[in-house]
Amino acid sequence: MNSPAASPGRRIWTAGTLTYTLAGVVSLFLWLLAGDFAWMMKERAITPVAQIMLRSFESPDWLVGLLVGSIPAGIGMILGPVVSVCSDRHRGRWGRRIPYLFIPTPFVALAMFGLAVTPALGEWLHQALGEHSPGLMGTRILVFTFFWTAFEIGSIIVNTLFIALINDVVPKQVIGRFFALFRAVSLIAGILFNFFLMGKAQAHTIEIFGVLGLFYGIGFTLMCLKVKEGEYPPPEPVERVSRKGKRLEPLVRYLRECFTHRYYLCFFLAFTLGMIANAPVNAFSIFHARSVGMSDDLYGKCLALSYVISLILTYPLGSLADRFHPIRVGLWATIIYAGVTLAGFVLPNEGNVFFVTFLLHTVISGIYLTGTASLAPRLLPQAKFAQFASAASLVTAGCVMVLPPMLGTFIQVMGHQYRYAFLLGFLISAGSAGAYVLLLRGFYRHGGDANYEPPIPEAENEGLNR
Q1: pLDDT over threshold 70, residue 293
Q2: Nearest residue to 114 via CA among 38, 48, 213
Q3: Would the pLDDT of 68 be above 90?
Q4: What pTM value is reported for the model?
Q5: What is the pLDDT confidence band of residue 378, given thresholds at 50, 70 and 90?
Q6: How far apart are CA 348 and CA 363, in angstroms?
Q7: Do residues 186 and 38 both lie within one domain?
Q8: Range from 289-293, 325-329, 343-347, 432-436 carrying the lowest mean pLDDT
Q9: Are 107 and 147 in contact (CB under 8 A)?
Q10: Residues 6 or more apart in contact with residue 141 via CB below 8 angstroms
Q11: Considering the domain boundaries, does residue 325 fall inside one?
Q12: Would residue 351 count as lying in a domain?
């Protein structure tokens, strides 16, 4: 998608060796957003529909949480860094990202078809095993686990590198506005699924899995075929060590490069705390709403209203991030969110108060997600973007694995007083704001708005860099 040379006087945009005219930027945006829509329809639908299917198998709650939550996070912590480093170093005629996005796509679609026919396959397996069968529920869960694991492996590869592709091909001058549209597509996909399909998921699980698998396979494949990458400089040579340490060399290099530089540690801390700050309120919002007498219908309308507000704000927020930098948007969003959650904790625990604070919580969370969507592409090293992005995801995934049970235990100890979820949100967001201040200071040290250059980690382990 390298646009033809622009005529004199026409504005051009560049991303590495790629050059775009206005028509080229529009075409690039359309194809990436088309792929994003197919991707987001899958992401929005898969977890709730999978939970409904598992519930129909009479699966215990702990197994549902293990399959849908913990296992994907665990696979991501192992697979994400490996795929990221391999992609950063890959050079080929199709680029360094497209091959890793294109190859898993049909397998993800096939896994979704497999999930669609899981009930029938589970029943066939139960009959085939005869007296050796663990029972109909057991065989269905075995079949589900097989296809679900295959689905998650492919999805994790795609999820890890899709943002890296965007970072490589979208011009930095407009990347904030692109991520605003990216966020808008996500919200639209969520609205469409919840409005049209969620109510039918119980009775039409098979059809939803099958149709969305086909839609994702076609839509994402077309994007991979239409979006073109530029040329990249050769990767830096890999240092060889003694045979004894050879097997651990990639892991040691990954950890040394990602986690021994103070500036990137501040980035990981700000990024992670900002991403999980809304988790305490989200985890218990429906229970909090019921505890103050709010009906599920009013709760749903409050959530839908927040989505509409977030959708309206997406493009202005993207423009704001392009103009003032996402690091500043993130700082102010976390400060405002800290104020909202503190108010949610100290104000009277009543229905009207919860409606307003929950609405503000959701909208400010959306502002943070939209305003900081381009933070990693603006701050991380271009040559090793996927590697550093995977390191940030690694830290976040670790927190996501341990945070829910800790939150549940805390709320239980506090006698199910759900307003304490706002207190936890305040503490995490205040920590995130502090991390953003440190990150902003590091940003100025490395050139600031006019001359920023991401620091390159030293090849040798020299302790924490400044």
Answers
A1: yes
A2: 213
A3: no
A4: 0.77
A5: very high
A6: 21
A7: yes
A8: 289-293
A9: no
A10: 54, 57, 59, 63, 122
A11: yes
A12: yes
Are residue 311 and residue 444 in the same domain, yes or no? yes
Mean of pLDDT values over 169-178? 90
The total of other beta-carbon atoms located within 10 Å of residue 466's CB is 9
- 3-22 residue pLDDT tens: 555 555 578 999 999 999 99
**Chain mean position to CA 288:** 26
Question: How long a stretch of residues is the chain?
Answer: 466
Residue-range definition of the domain harbouring residue 129: 13-226
CATH for 389: 1.20.1250.20
Residues 6 or more apart from 423 whose CB is under 8 A from it? Answer: 341, 342, 345
DSSP string, 26-54: HHHHHHHHHHHHHHHHHHHHHHHHHHHHH
The structure tokens 């009906």 sit at: 295
Comparing CA positions, the residue from 285, 227, 220 lying closest to residue 43 is: 220
- When computed from its CA atoms, the radius of gyration of the chain, rounded to whole angstroms, is 23
Mark out the alpha helices in 57-90 (DSSP H runs). 61-65, 71-89
Closest CA to 371 of 428, 312, 331: 331
| Measured distance CA(4)–CA(22) in Å, rounded | 11
In a domain, 300, yes or no: yes
Residue 350's pLDDT is 84
Over the stretch 53-67, which tens digit does the pLDDT of each residue have? 887 888 876 787 678
Question: What is the b/e burial string over 183-194, where b = at least 16 CB atoms within 10 angstroms of the residue's CB?
Answer: bbbbbbbbebbb
Q: How many CA atoms lie within 13 A of 68 on its CB side?
A: 19
Q: What is the pLDDT of residue 464?
A: 45
Q: Characterise 448 by phi-psi region: left (phi > 0), alpha (psi -120 to 50), beta (else).
A: left
